[in-house]
Structure formats: structure tokens, C-alpha cells
Design a protein that fits this description.
single chain, alpha/beta, Leucine Aminopeptidase, subunit E, domain 1, binds ligand BES, binds manganese (II) ion, binds zinc ion
Length: 495
């Protein structure tokens, strides 16, 4: 059910939980002061006793408070108002909503703070609450006998009704993020290239988008020798999925979103150790993010043409696995010497990128859980970006900033390309020990035919190892918001 929005006297709202933001200044004015009065000075008392401090994301639940209609009150800290930005506010909102989403059939009323600093507009705050109201209720518990998180029966945003569109936009983003998270969190025996493609087809049909699912025979016809080599060791047949959204004019430029969709990465014959393999169901996060993003872009009816490309394979070990020393021929004719079967993501993307280029694109962004080296370089929370076109990369990075997502650019000097040289083929699929995130990026660059392209290595942030109060462990849906923000900003045809 969509969120309701209306201005309302806080103490008179009927809900299981009334969520109210408090800053660390312990000064109550406006609606907060009214609430303090209706509750007989409760807020002031809590601050005086240091039971509440307003520290960012601190939660102070009050059961059966006097003087208000809501059954329970939850104070959530937002820290210092003058340094409150989108990311911090989201941390507070997510902590509060995740906390109350652990019980069945809960109704919540979230009071939008009256005082916000220029760092955070009321529109952005409303959007954040919309997104959080969806993301907070979905967990990793897909196959648990007893669920651990529940959808709210009702969400009431207490705010100016002018903010309804922003809140609704937030909900659309939250639903898309949940689709992406669900696909990533599903175990690899359930989520295969085939079942992923089937889901993509259903989702597209629901939105009236055209969806082309290519099976193995078709991929042979399309000469995707590099992608097919990765898939050949698995009993699960590969798929490439292409979804078109045409929100722009007929001749307007097209944005291609390309995702790595390795539904399980065992490493192949260059097999991963158990610890490294344990979370490799997440290796289709790029494809899941691209699918989630295009659903949000379509629901928001953004005036732009976007095509999503998903390369779906399983990287397994068997008598038919591709081998070290194999020389593959990619769709664009480039021959590749396989020196490590665990560097499979780039082999999948190579063919999907050149397919996208051949089909006609003006701007490309690819997303992939591509290298452990990127996680070593930037840590678990920052996306690595690489590009052949600085202006386009700047546009993506502006969108990321707007969306509150962290990415950092890595250099693409020519010297890195030399590391991919092979004695027996046009190139090899690994670049050696050093600069692994970048040599992977340099490999992909060979398949975009000079089109403006940004590669996002999401290996670190796509999948979180543990639960935190403000976010569930497992899939995060990172970069989905950035992609939607990017599409909302529009693109120009390259010069
Ligand atoms: N899917 C992995 C990268 C990865 C690592 C994703 C950690 C998420 C978390 C990728 O296919 C891979 O195995 N890359 C190799 C490349 C190497 C063989 C050149 C790696 O990073 O070790
Ligand atoms: Mn791998
Ligand atoms: Zn992989």
C-alpha cells in the first residue's frame, strides 16, 4: 500500500508507532515543543536524564506514553541539524524503521523534522523516508520458516502534502532496490540464468517493456564465444536479456546499462577457496541492479531511452569447463587467451558490451562485482569507477553524489593495457598481480568501440557481510539510485 501523507498534529495521530526525529541540541520548538507539552514534558525529561541525547541514529522507544494517541513513541536521533545530509538522515530513518519492522502488522507514522538545513531539502527527506519505508521491511529471510521483518500495514508521513511526489518517488526506488536485493539474496540453486531471465520477462511484461531473452542457440548465432566459454562448464544454460524502455523521443540518444550476471562464481578450474566462494551468489549483482534500475526508470516515466543488458551465466567446474590456455573468440573478433577461469566476469561483459554497441548506444554504464582488487583498493563501501570519457564519468559521479552513494575513480593510463598482452592471442584475460581492478577495466575497454563508457566495479559494496542497525546484511542494491538519478538528469548524444 502506498504511503499516505498529510500534515497532522503529532500527538493526535493514530498509529502503533509514532517516529519523531530529535537533534542533539535538546531544544524543542514548533511541533516538537507541542509534543513535549502533550506528553507532560516527557521529551525534556528524557534529555535531562540523558536517556536521550539525539546522537545520530540513537533510538529511544517509549511504550504507552501518556498524552498522545499513538500506542508507542520512537525517538530517533539525527545529530546536529546543521550537518544533517541525505546519507545521515537515511541512516536515522532506516534505523528507526528497521527497528519497528520486526513485528507483524505494524502501522507507523513518521514525522518529518520541521527544521532542516540547506544540506537536506524537505523533498529529499520525504524521498528518503519513502525509500526507507520499503527497504527497511525486506530482509535476507527469504527462506526462513519464520520471517524476521514485515511490511507495514500503513505508513503515514506527517508532512506538507506538497511532498507527496517526492515520497512516492522514494517508494518506487525502494521497491526497485528490494527487487534487486531479492534476486541477489536468493540462493544460487534457485536463482539461475534461466530463472533470472524468467523473472526479468515477468517484470518487463508488468511494465509493458519489450524484453528479449536470448538462449544458447541464439548466443551462438550472435558469436558470443567469450560468454559461452564461461557458461560451458555448467548444466545451467546461459541467457542474455535485453530490455528496452523508450521514454524519450524516437531519435533521442540511448543510455545502455550493462550488468554482470554470474549467478554463481565457483572460479571454474581456477577454483576459489571456500571463504572466497561463500558469497558468490552475489556475483549477479550488476545484472540485478540494472534490472531494478530500469523498472524504477519506467515507473517514474523518465523522459529518456534506456536499454538494460544482462549477461547471465554460471561459472562451474565439470568435464566441459573452459580451460587455462583456451583461446576464445569474442563477438567483436578479439581473441582472448584464458589464463585464469576466475576472471570470468570480463569475458561475459566483453560480448554483452559489444552486442550493446552493435545494437546502437550513445552512452554506456556497466556494473559488475568484477574484482577483489577493487575491494582491496577502496574498501567494502566504495564503488570503483573507470572510464574512457571524463565528461561522461563526471556526469555519473555527480549523479552518485546526488544519490548519496560513494564512488571513486581509478586511473586508466595506457600502460595498464600492456599488462594484458598475450604471446598467442590478441590479449589474455588477466593482467597479473598488480592493479587488478584497473587491468579488468582496461580489458572491458577493448569491447566498447570508443563509445562514452563508465565501468563501475561494485565488488565491495554490493553485498554486506553483516547486519547493522541501519541496514540488513546481504545485498544492498548499491548504485541503483545513482542509475535512476543519472537517467533523470538526461543524456546528450556524444559529439
Ligand atoms: N566475482 C569475482 C570478484 C569478487 C570478489 C566479487 C569478491 C565480489 C567479492 C571475480 O569473478 C573474480 O573472481 N575476480 C578475480 C580476478 C582475478 C582472477 C584476476 C579476483 O578478484 O580475484
Ligand atoms: Mn571469478
Ligand atoms: Zn565473478
Amino acid at each position: 500500500m502506498p504511503l499516505e501523507i498529510s500534515s497532522h498534529v503529532w500527538s493526535e495521530i493514530d498509529a502503533d508507532w509514532l517516529i519523531v526525529c530529535v537533534s542533539d541540541s535538546s531544544e524543542f520548538s514548533g511541533a516538537l515543543s507541542d509534543l513535549n507539552q502533550s506528553t507532560g514534558g516527557l521529551l525534556k525529561r528524557l534529555f535531562d536524564q540523558k536517556d536521550a541525547t539525539g546522537k545520530l541514529a540513537e533510538l529511544v522507544p517509549v511504550h504507552a506514553p501518556n498524552g498522545i494517541k499513538a500506542k508507542r513513541l520512537l525517538l530517533v536521533g539525527i545529530g546536529a541539524v546543521d550537518s544533517l545530509d541525505r546519507v545521515k538522515f537515511e541512516k536515522a530513518a532506516m534505523s528507526a524503521l528497521r527497528n519497528v519492522a520486526t513485528k507483524k502488522e505494524v502501522s507507523v507514522a513518521f514525522a518529518l523534522p520541521e527544521q532542516l538545513d540547506p544540506n537536506l531539502s524537505a523533498n529529499t527527506a520525504a524521498e528518503v523516508i519513502g525509500t526507507a519505508s520499503r527497504v527497511a521491511t525486506a530482509g535476507q529471510d527469504l527462506l526462513k520458516s519464520e520471517a524476521t521483518r514485515f511490511e507495514f500495514v500503513r505508513v503515514h508521513l506527517i508532512a506538507n502534502p506538497d511532498l507527496a511526489d517526492a515520497a512516492r518517488r522514494g517508494e518506487v526506488l525502494g521497491e526497485a532496490i528490494n527487487l534487486t536485493r531479492e534476486l541477489i539474496n536468493l540462493p544460487p540453486q534457485h536463482l539461475t540464468p534461466e530463472s533470472f531471465a524468467e523473472r526479468a520477462r515477468e517484470v518487463s511484461a508488468g511494465l509493458g517493456l519489450s524484453c528479449d531473452v536470448m538462449d544458447r542457440d541464439r548466443l551462438v548465432v550472435e558469436r558470443m564465444g567469450s560468454l559461452l566459454a564461461v557458461a560451458q562448464g555448467s548444466v545451467e544454460p546461459p541467457r542474455v536479456v535485453v530490455i528496452d524502455y523508450k521514454g524519450g523521443a524516437a531519435g533521442a540518444p540511448t543510455l545502455a546499462l550493462v550488468g554482470k550476471g554470474v549467478t554463481f562464481d565457483s572460479g571454474g578450474l581456477s577454483i576459489k577457496p571456500t571463504d572466497g566462494m561463500l558469497t558468490m551468489k552475489c556475483d549477479m549483482a550488476g545484472a540485478a541492479t540494472v534490472l531494478g534500475a530500469i523498472t524504477a526508470i519506467a515507473k517514474l516515466k523518465l523522459p529518456i531511452n534506456v536499454t538494460a543488458y544482462m549477461g547471465l551465466v554460471e561459472n562451474m567446474i565439470s568435464g566441459s569447463s573452459y580451460k587455462l590456455g583456451d583461446i576464445l573468440k569474442a563477438r567483436n573478433g578479439v581473441t582472448i587467451e584464458v589464463q585464469n577461469t576466475d576472471a570470468e566476469g570480463r569475458l561475459v561483459l566483453a560480448d554483452v558490451l559489444s552486442y550493446a554497441v552493435d545494437r546502437g548506444v550513445d552512452r554506456i554504464v556497466d556494473l559488475a562485482t568484477l574484482t577483489g582488487a577493487c575491494v582491496v583498493a577502496l574498501g567494502e563501501e566504495v564503488v570503483g569507477s573507470m572510464t574512457n570519457n571524463q565528461a561522461w564519468c563526471d556526469q555519473v559521479s555527480t549523479a552518485a553524489k546526488q544519490a548519496g552513494e560513494l564512488m571513486w575513480q581509478l586511473p586508466m593510463f595506457d600502460l595498464y593495457t600492456d599488462l594484458l598482452k598475450s604471446d598467442v592471442a590478441d590479449c589474455r584475460n588477466i593482467g597479473g598481480r598488480w592493479g587488478g581492478a584497473i587491468t579488468a577495466g582496461k580489458f572491458l575497454e577493448k569491447f566498447v568501440s570508443g563509445k562514452p563508457w563508465v565501468h563501475l566495479d561494485i565488488a565491495g559494496p554490493a553485498f554486506a557481510s553483516s547486519n547493522k542497525p541501519h541496514r540488513e546484511g546481504g545485498a544492498t542494491g548499491v548504485m541503483l539510485r545513482t542509475l535512476v538519478e543519472l537517467a533523470a538528469g538526461g543524456i546528450e548524444a556524444p559529439a
